[in-house]
Each structure stands twice: as structure tokens, then as C-alpha cells.
Amino acid sequence: MSGTSAGSAAVPCRFAHYFVICGIDTETGLEPDELQTTGKSYKFASENFEQSPLKRTFKSKVLARYPENVEWNPFDQDAVNMLCMPKGLSFRTQADQREPQFHSFIITKEDGSRTYGFVHTFYEEVTSPQICSAMQTLYQMHNAEQTNAASSSSSSSSSMDSLASSLDDGYSPTSSSSSSLSRAAGSYDSSRDTLYVSKALCLITPMPFMHACRRFLAQMHSAVIAATAPPLPLESYVYNILYEVPLPALGRSLKFHGIYEPIVCQRPGPGELPLADFPLAEAFSLLGVENLVQVFTCTLLEMQILLYSQDYQRLMTVAEGITTLLFPFQWQHVYVPILPASLLHFLDAPVPYLMGLQSKEGTDRSKLELPQEVQHQPGLRSIFTACLFCRWCHKATTAQRRKDRHRQQTEHLTLDNDLKEKYMQEARSLGKNLRQPKLSDLSPAVIAQTNWKFVEGLLKECRMKTKRMLVEKMGREAVELGHGEASITGLEENTLIASLCDLLERIWSHGLQVKQGKSALWSHLLHYQAREEMLAQQADSPGNIHEHTRSRKRKSDSSIAMPSLRVSLIQDMRHIQSMSEIKTDVGRARAWIRLSLEKKLLSQHLKQLLSRQALTKKLYKRYAFLRCEEEKEQFLFHLLSLNAVDYFCFTSVFTTIMIPYRVVIIPIKKLSNAMTTSNPWVCVSGELGDSGIMQIPKNVLEMTFDCQNLGKLTTVQLGHDNAGLLAKWLVDCVMVRNEITGHTYRFPCGRWLGKGVDDGSLERVLIGELVLPSGEDDSARACRTPPLQRSPSQGRRIKLNSAQIQEGIGEAVNNIIKHFHKPEKERGSLTVLLCGENSLVAALEQFFHHGFKSARLFQKTVFVWDFVEKAVAYMESADQVGDLQETTEAMKMTCQSLCHYFNAINSTSRNIGKDGKFQLLVCLGARDRLLPQWLPLLVECPVILQMYEDTAMLRDPSTLNTLISVLEALHDFSITLEASLVKGINL
Q1: Which PANTHER family does UniProt cross-reference here (predicted)?
Q2: Which helix (H) or strand (E) holds 44?
Q3: Distance between CA 227 and CA 947 in Å, rounded?
């Protein structure tokens, strides 16, 4: 009887884990189910005499299961019982329909794994006299209640209609009238009627082999009711499917023996689509294409979705159809295709979910009250209704149900703090095994337990999201630190941040007293802002809130520094409110989150927001996430961990907004505070553009300007027109700060700007570096005038030995190569690697200065560019007189390219100085893969004998060849130069 897999050995995993039987417990008798979904209210079944006993629901029980337990899939008796019979036991008589029904269900465990259940429900005759007698008693009580109700309201039209119908049936309004009334609704008389009760056969499997399980259970039922017994005892067939039938191998089919006929199932291979055994065509048939597309859209948007049907299997079919269509994505949120009646309060969960709810037989769905935000689907079949719930809390179907729920919540809210703590502790002690709360136990402790699960889930999600964000940002370093289990698979940073924004919205939506606006977080921030502004007005100190100014300032003091940017939650809100590009509250909340995250203030801002406990208590119920102190602290701690990495999630998204920038020019000498008689100017450039040339007012060292978002800042062009008697200008560095994000960049200079001094430059391109944030005490110190320094040109001429210079060149080239091997999102600034400290240009300057005869007593300083200029002049004159005619064609082309690039740089209208021109030659040569070809030409020029010592590295053939081979390693990469570097160069 064991199954055989076509062409493969049996795999160790079993086809099924459990065989379960659920039904009535004859020992305990008829026990009413705790909660009924009558569409009217929550009531005790024993107290609801308006319904016929045959229409009521009663407690079911797991009568038997085999095996007792499976180690890798522990048996959850409460969950299986609820899902096998979601509405409890039901009774029928011989006059009622008793066709067998089939449905399936899913149990999702805490680790996200799923177990599938397949249920065959049928009706068997009740043989217990006690059960029949109890049903007879219930019927008589119902009969008496109906008679009393009819006699007490005989004047009403409904009673007259009932009386008329009874007279039409030929009964007099005596004791027999009650019998006729109840018979119309479904009666029971133990002396003449046969009583039947529902019973369920269930298979629990690790995979959704729906068709195979359905056929096996149907054959099992046929064997149970058959007049002749099957060939083997029924226990043999159960043992076979549990222990001898394996899971099909990947990509193979499996055929095993049922009771009467063989059963076949198939498992997809690794390269195929996942197993989808539920009929997708039926989902389209039930909903229609247009409606299914709308439901699918809501699923992608992670909304709250409730499926509504009388048939359990149809709920499962549509839910599985939707999740199947999501492939290759997965639904990561709450997934309960069949929601048991006793767990209706789970519809209040403030999280995305996909749930299925059975409609009561005979319920008039046209009278179903749904929130206004629900989008009604008119095209659905009469037996199946799908409602899309977008940010809603499930409402009762009648005013009575709303009244009962409101009363329960009101009673819970009136508890004092001591009782609240007591109940919360009690709820925590209940653990996670409470799955089916009883109506009699709907105490504040159980209500707290239910909400506690939501709080716990939100906290767990926050922990996972922050961890995923850190791992994604840290990349390989995080894996090396042991964080590989977060399973980051190339998720975009923007997607993770958007997911964090959604999580914060759901946290702020949990337990709201009254929802105001579309964004709960922004609504809370607006309440906080109004409260703080009111307190500031009362204190007559509006300056405490509004400290920002964009007007230009003049520093008359000699202590030039970048003024500190005060941390202010209100000011960050004002920045967002001033952005006309953002039209909605949800958009403002997301922009505020991104700004706070970029400034590494998200945890601090939210902690400040929640520190106003009176405001939080006013806006939120006592069980809300934001009022759970311990969980709130953990939540803020998880957000604080994001400060370990740098985000530019605000700057990179809002690229068209106007941003105020502050510029501070820091001179080296105190006398330079008087600035210069010339007309200075500055141009700030970033990844998204530049500010254009801006004139700096004379004798002003600090200014602010508004400009469209420049992105990450990269360079600053600083210069003047050399006018007046005091035209020389010695600048140490330029500091530029984004006044919204607080990012501060330092652009080192350390050089003179002026004719006849240094290299004669009137303009310099400064390469920026982001200043790391520091404590409040250190921030001002970091931005003050640094100690006296020599210019970079002088510093680069410090005598280094040849080994140190070669090591510097190798390191500079390696840094550029590593830059291109990193993922694009992890790359830094290529401009810094080319022109900054320890860059390629700096390393090559050291090489060219080795053995260079530049220091002349009582003479002008000679620069490397002077050597290049003389070498090019020699090449051009040699070409003119024909000395280059004997050289190869390739050599001629190389000479022509060097002369062409030299002339283009030398003829530019920019006054960038000799060192700046050499920097441009190196950058252009590296970009166009010409630099290694130019070096031999420079060495062969006779002028090298006049300008370099015999021991110079440039005159050592082996050293030169090594340098050429190192520079050729850059030919594999496409180097793009920033526009500010090559501005004014015509090639």
C-alpha cells in the first residue's frame, strides 16, 4: 500500500502528519459555543432563545488524533478544532439537507511556516439518548419562548402575520400553535425525528495537496458508511498515509493507494512555479476579472482585506488564489483565510491582513453595515462577497453589536492605573497559547492580552525592519559581523525606508481614541506643535521655537566659526510644512521621517514627542502601543540603532525643493578677517547640480543662500578678480552646511589666491569632505579656525623617499579600483579619490617633485607645470623643424594629444593657477587613458636634464615603467569627471 515515486527514492518527509476526527463529546453533552455570529450581537448560545436549537452552534471537540504528537510539528488542539469546525457543531434532522462538505485551512506558526488542513464534514446519526433528550428540552424551551413572545405582542403586525399563517395551516391558536410556529423554522420531536450531528475527518499536511487529500477523505467517508467493509481495516489506510506515503520528490509525481482507487499528486521542480493546487479559475469565476484585479491591487498595497462567503472552501480558494498571483512576492502579514467565530475581535488588528469570514446562512447582505472607506464590489456572485477594507476597524452589523462592543471598551477604559498594571501582568503571564478566549473570560485581562499580541507583533516587526535596514546599509561588513540571518537579498534602501514609514504609521494608529486625518503620526505631531507653540506664547519666548534665519550676516569678530544648528523637532516640522511639493499629511509624515532619519534624530524626536504624556493619554487608549512603557522604550532603542549608519534618504528623494545653505570662509591669518579689496565669489557644487557663481559681499566671511537641492556636496569653486591694493587672500578652508539636514562639509584650501603669490591662482577648486557629527561641545570646536597650516603645495613637497612615494601611488590607484568594484550605492566620491587628500593627483605630485629643482634662491618658485610647459614647447618646436619625422606614427599621435590637452588647459579663461592646471592634466589623462602614454614623452625631453636631479624617480627607467604599469590598471574603468573640475576646458 505504500506510495511509490516515479523514478526516485522515497524522501524522508511524510505526506501527512496527522489524521484527526472532530465531533460531539457525548460525555459532556450539548455545550453552547461561546460566541455566535448571528449578525446581531454577541450572546450566550444558551440565552439566545430566538433561534431554533437546530440553528444554534455548539462546542465541538477533537475526539481522536493519530499520532499523538509529531516532534517537528506539535499538535495544536485548539487551533485544529476551531478550524475543522469554525462555527462549531451543527444539528440536522431527516428533513434537512445533509450533503458532505469539504474545506481546507491554514495554520501559520510564529516562524512563518505553514501547515495545511483538509476537512471532510458529514452528518452522522446521534445514538446517544442523552443528546436527543437535551435537544428535545432545548426545543421545548424555544417553543415556549416563541409562544410567550407571540401572546405578549399580539397587537403587532408581525404577530398577526404569524397568527394568520398558523390558521392557514389548519392549527388553532392553542398548544399546537406553538408547534406550527416552530416547525416553520425547523422543529424537532425525538419521538418522530432522527437527529444528526456534524462530524469532521481531517488530514494535516506540510504541503497543500488539496485534490489528493480531498479524494482520500471522501473515500474514507465512503468506507465508514458502506454496507460492506473495505479490504483492510480503516486503521491500515490511516497508517499508510501517515507513515508509508512520502512527500513527492521535487519535480516528480507520486501515486499511492487510497481505499477504493489510487490517488496521484505532483510536486513542482526547483525551476518551476510553486505548488498551487487550489483552482485559480474558480477564484476568477467567483469574483470576476475586474474585482479580482482590485483585490490583487489592495494586496500589493498591503491593505486590510476581508473575504466574505457562506462557503469555507471558497474563502480558502480565493485567498490562496490571491497569494499565488503574488509570486514571486509573498504575503508577509496576517493570513487567516478562515477566521473562527470566536476570534472576530482579531478584525480590530491595526496591521495589514488577509482574512476570510463566513456569512451566516440566510443573512441579508444588503443590510450589512460596512465602513464608508470600504469599496463595495457589485459584480460579485450572490453567494460570495469580497469587501476591501482600507485602514478600518471592523464594525458590527447592527447598532446593538456596536453598543455592546462600546460598552466593553468603556468598562476597560475606566480602570485605574493600578488595575491596568495588574491586568497587563496577568495578560503577559497567559503566554502565547491562548487561542480561543471564552465569552465569560472577556475580562480586561483578556482584552489586554489580545491587544498585547498586536503590541508584541509591532515591536517584533520594528526589530526586524531596523535590523534589515542596518544589514542592507552595512553590506558585507554586516555579514562578517554575524548578521547574515536577516536574509537581505538586494532590497533597495528606498523600499526599506518606505516600509519603515508604513510601520510607524501603523504604530501611531494603534489604540487611537479618534482618528483625525489620513496620517496618525502627522496628526500627533500637529497636536504637539500646537501645544508647544501655545506654551511658548504663554512664556513670551517665541524665539524658543523659531531660531532659523536665511538673511545674510556679517562677522565683525575675529573668531570665525560655523554657528551651531540647534536640534528642534518643531523646526524640522516647519521645514516640511514649507515644502509646497508635498500635498498630503501622509506625504508630510514620510518626509519628516526621512529628514529625521538623515539627521540621525528619528529616535530622539519621537522620544521628545512621546515625552508629553498628557497629550499621549489624551489621544490614545490605555492599551495602545505608545502607552506600553517597556515596549515603547525598546521601540525607540531599535530606532536609535539606525544612527550607526549614514542615510541621505531625504536629500536623495526631494531633489526639487529649495534648501538654504550657509557658507563660512575661514582664513588662516587673523589679518585676513578684513578680507580683500577684490571682489570674491563662490560656487557650490553637488551631485545634483551647482549654485552658480555667487558674489560674496566684501569683508563678509559668512553668508547664506537659497538654492534648489544640490544633493551631496562635492566641490566649491572659490575665487576673486584681483582688484585693489589688497587683492591677495589666504584661505584655510570653506565650510558649507545644509540648513535643513544639518550636513556640514569642509573644503580644505590652505593656499593663497592672488597674482604674484603661490602659483598665481585667482581661483581654486576645493574638494569637500563630510564633517562627522560630534557632540555639542565638540561641534563648535570642529568648525572653528584650525591651527596655522602650510599650503598643500608646500606640504606635498615634504621630502619622501622613493619607497614612500611608490606606496602612495599604489594606494591611490587601489582606492580608485576598489571604488568601481563596490556596489554603486556604497561608492563614495570619485572626485575625492582623484583630487583630495592622499589622492591620485597628490601622489603623482609627490612623484614629479622628487628630485625637482624647484627651490631657487632669490628666484621665483618653479612648479611642475613649468616643466610640462617647457616639454610641450620643445615637442611643438621639434615637430615644426621635422625632428619628429623619424618617430613612429603612434608616438606622433601621443605628442599631438599631449600638446592639444596642454593648450586647452592653458588657454582656459579660468585663473586656476599652475598646480590647478597640473591637476586638470592628470584628471583628463586618467579619464581618457592617455596618462601612461604621456610619461615617456616627458622623460625624453632634454629639459628634464635641466630641471631634475640625476637621482629623480622620473629619470629612473625601472621606476617609470612600474608607474606606467600601475596607471594602466585604471584603463579597465570608465572615469567620469565632475563638471566643476573641467569647466571652461574645450577638448
Answers
A1: DENN DOMAIN-CONTAINING PROTEIN 5B, PINSTRIPE, ISOFORM A
A2: none
A3: 115
969 CB-contact burial (10 Å; exposed 0-12 / middle 13-18 / buried 19+): middle
- pLDDT tens profile 677-691: 788 899 999 988 899
Q: Which helix (H) or strand (E) holds 224?
A: helix 210-225
Tens of pLDDT, residue by residue over 733-772, are: 899 999 999 999 999 988 888 888 878 888 889 998 888 7
406: cell is 462600546
| Element containing residue 587 per DSSP (H, E) | helix 585-598
With beta carbons less than 8 A apart as the criterion, state whether 852 and 952 touch: yes
> For residue range 766-797, what is the model confidence (pLDDT) as tens digits?
998 888 765 443 433 334 434 333 334 444 45
Number of Cβ within a 10 Å radius of residue 118: 26
Give the pTM: 0.55
CA distances from 752 to 483, 494, 562, 758 (A): 50, 43, 22, 6
Of 565, 611, 950, give the one whose Cα is nearest residue 783.
565
Q: What is the DSSP letter of 119?
A: E
Query: Comparing 554 with 589, which gets the higher pLDDT?
Result: 589
Q: Per residue in 426-461, pLDDT tens?
A: 444 433 333 333 333 445 555 566 677 778 888 888
Distance from C-alpha of 395 to C-alpha of 373, rounded to nearest angstrom: 12
Backbone angles phi, psi at 295, to 5 degrees: -65, -40
Least confident of 174-178, 316-320, 490-494: 174-178
Whole-number pLDDT of residue 9? 39
- 710, 685 in Cβ contact below 8 A? yes
Residue range 180-220, pLDDT digits in tens? 444 444 578 878 888 999 999 999 998 889 899 999 999 99
Domains of the chain in start order, with CATH, are 18-205 (no CATH), 280-404 (3.40.50.11500), 454-544+567-644 (1.20.58.900), 658-789 (2.60.60.20), 810-982 (1.20.58.900)
Tally Cβ neighbours within 10 Å of residue 749: 25
Give the single-character DSSP code of 824.
G
Is 889 buried (19+), middle (13-18) or exposed (0-12) by CB count in 10 A?
exposed
- What does the angle CA 255 – CA 260 – CA 264 come to, to the nearest 5 degrees? 20
Distance CA 631, CA 210 (A): 41
Cis check for the bond before 12: say yes or no (omega within 30 of 0): no
Residue 539, pLDDT above cutoff 60: yes
Helices 585-598 and 569-577 pack at an angle, to 10 degrees, of 130
Please give the torsion angle defined by the CA atoms of residues 826, 827, 828 and 834, in that order, rounded to the nearest 10 degrees.
160
Give CA–CA dist 905/984, Å, rounded: 9
Q: How far apart are CA 591 and CA 661, in angstroms?
A: 19
Confirm if 317 and 356 have CB atoms less than 8 A apart: no
Read off the amino acid at residue 755: K
Cα–Cα distance, 203 to 118 (Å, whole number)? 5
Query: Are the beta carbons of 706 and 551 closer than 8 angstroms?
Result: no
| CB atoms closer than 10 angstroms to residue 385 | 20
Distance of CA 93 to the CA centre of its chain: 54
Q: How far apart are CA 70 and CA 80, in angstroms?
A: 14
CA dist 342 and 345 (Å) reads 8
Does an H or E element contain 197, and which? Answer: strand 195-205
**Closest listed residue to residue 634, CA positions, set 505, 501, 507:** 507
Distance of CA 136 to the CA centre of its chain: 58
Q: What is the pLDDT of residues 3-12, one digit of tens each?
A: 444 333 333 4
Q: Which helix (H) or strand (E) holds 571?
A: helix 569-577
Query: How far apart are alpha carbons 837 and 821 in whole angstroms?
Result: 21
As given in the structure block, the three cell numbers for residue 202 are 481531517
The secondary structure of 242-307 as a DSSP string is: III-BPPPTT-EEEEE-SSSEEEEE---TTSPPP--S-HHHHHHHH-HHHHHHHHHHHHTT-EEEE
